[in-house]
Write a structure and sequence with these properties.
The protein is built from 3 helices and 5 strands, in the order ββββαβαα. The chain is α+β, with helices and mostly antiparallel strands.
Length: about 160
Amino acid sequence: MRVDGPDTYQLTFDAQSFVVRCPRGTDKFSGFSTSKRPKLYVVSIRRRPVYVGVTRRSIRARLRGGWKADGRAGYYGYAFRHKLVSAQLDIWCHQNASGENPNLALETVEAEVVYHIRQAGQWPLFQTEIHFRPSKAVHRRLAQRILSRYRLRKR
């Protein structure tokens, strides 16, 4: 399982729209953030994760969907867009995903990441759903590598 990243971006936003800033000084997503490969992304405030997600869409398309959702199809979008005004966005990409459901491995890592955040005190503040999967050592190691970037609440 080859997972590259993270690519890090700063988001500023209100409930209707967002603006992205890259450390390289651009306002565009680039590299694997624009690919159709499976990606795990973490939204955080002061290095504390508030949302963890997985997508195969480009990150801009995924975020746009989370900003435009209004509940008519049962999805209300990102809850954090109503409460926050900025956040950090870290993105990892599964470079060699294959099989019938290429998102499956990163969904497993996503569940492990969220589980460990919960073990440290509480669910991510704006997490609205999670898909739990049986995990293997490779998923748990990757989750720990991802979590090493963040500060988790102490119990």
